Amino acid sequence: MLKRKLTALSFATSSDVSRNAGGFDVCSDATLPNLPVELIWQIAAHLVKPTLTHDFERLTVRKRKYDLCALRLVCRRLFETVHDVFLSAAFSALEVDLTLSHLEALVDIARDSRYSAAVKTLHFVMAEAWPDADDWDEAYDQEVLERNYIERGAGAILLRKALDGFSNLQAIKIQPTMWFPGNSRFVTSRWPHGEGSTTSLMSTIFAALSLSTARIKTLAFTRRHPFTDDLNGPTGCYIPHFSIPSSSMAAFQHLTTLDLVIALRPSKRFDLSMAVAFTVFLSTMKQLESLSIRFDSHVLSEIVTREFLIDCKFLKLRRFRLEVAWVWKTISGCCPLLEFVRNNKHVRHLEIAFMDLDEGGCTSFLETLRTECRDLEDVSLRYITEEMSAVLFNERKCISTRGVDGMAAWLSEAQRSISIANTDHDECPAARYENYPDDSEYDSSGSG
């Protein structure tokens, strides 16, 4: 149909040109293959971009592997004309769902150098759409069976094959997903693999990266809003994911951007070895320029933050964000957050949210920012405590306040920006775990 319409267009254009030949130079027939590449690309841009994800409606019709129809516009000549332009734009970022068919399709793309060389970003998501109630049991069991197979190691093997084929891969992004809210089938079924959350996704990705030859620069969670709390279960990665042998750390050592959401697993106990493993994981990243860490539990953060805040020094770090954290003083009396700021004075952008410090810690923290962090350009404080709010608005000799929609303040002497977004500290994300089921009976390690 498209070809017939374009042919008709070409006839009309040719006749118009012949009638007006006296006024301007005669142009070649305006058939689609003869159009300038830029104009062809404008037409091709209206096509749906390639994706490896699926929703349930497509799943019920057929298991959809990668579809090359987007490139089969009209003819081979047109394909060759637009091929390079289309590849660089449409294949630079691929969305991937960790199902067997989609991972197989990703491996197929990685094996073809024409396509694999164009891939720079892989965005991993998990389908949130589910079948209608009439077809729930059959479709649910089929989906869980396949994902269980992937999570048992097949996914990491396939993904590693794909990663090895993407020579220009620069970024891996993960969309946090929790299929099952607190009152869902998961609570009654008690199937550990039925969790289906980002924690399972991260486990597969970390395993594949550790074994692959990929050297990415960005590993990040993509979030609708940095402080959203609309999910009722683990939406990040577990601390044990960072216990990686030094021989398998090569894939992470070139990271310049790291954005993590770290989840509390309700049935697990945390010890110092986990905090040390996380610190070791971070300390190997000598090229890191942007670090963002959000914990889903203050309890978890209390153990982990103390270690890495004191020990980690990043020579190139320019942006640091810490969310949901208890930061208490050590036995020697030093504040880990102050030590981090002093060890990383070249940080330019600092963002803190849901953070509790020891009594008197807020004053010392702000004073350190003012006097010691000469490269600091802006500080964002969100969901601050009453103590920090009092410090910001009462110490007039250090802090000058000016209202911008009632939510801003500036450090007057250093001319640096402090923004305050919300002073209600009771909306803690950790509250989601009150209704989350304990899964200790499924702990394969035998420990609680």
Structural commentary:
- The protein has 14 helices and 12 strands.
- The protein has 448 residues and is of the alpha/beta class.
- It is 37% helix and 15% strand.
- Helix 2 (37-44) packs across helix 4 (76-90) and helix 12 runs parallel beside helix 13 (361-372).
- It has a domain at 37-237.
- InterPro entries: LRR_dom_sf.
- This is F-box domain-containing protein.
**Could you tell me the mean pLDDT?**
67
Radius of gyration: 27 Å
Structural class: alpha/beta
Low-confidence regions:
1-28, 53-71, 179-196, 225-233, 394-416, 422-448
Going across the major beta sheet, what is the strand order?
Answer: 1-2-3-4-5-6-7-8-9-12-11-10
Protein name: F-box domain-containing protein
Organism: Ascochyta lentis
Summarize the structure.
With 448 residues, the chain is α/β, with parallel strands linked by helices. The protein has helices at residues 2-19, 37-44, 56-61, 76-90, 100-111, 113-116, 136-165, 185-189, 198-211, 272-283, 298-311, 336-343, 361-372, 386-394; strands at residues 93-97, 121-125, 171-174, 218-221, 257-262, 290-295, 319-327, 349-357, 378-382, 399-401, 408-411, 416-420. The longest helix has 30 residues, at 136-165.
List the helices and strands and how they pair.
Blueprint (H helix, E strand, L loop, with lengths): L1 H18 L17 H8 L11 H6 L14 H15 L2 E5 L2 H12 L1 H4 L4 E5 L10 H30 L5 E4 L10 H5 L8 H14 L6 E4 L35 E6 L9 H12 L6 E6 L2 H14 L7 E9 L8 H8 L5 E9 L3 H12 L5 E5 L3 H9 L4 E3 L6 E4 L4 E5 L28
Parallel strand pairs: 1-2, 2-3, 3-4, 4-5, 5-6, 6-7, 7-8, 8-9, 9-12
Antiparallel strand pairs: 10-11, 11-12
InterPro entries: LRR_dom_sf
Protein name: F-box domain-containing protein
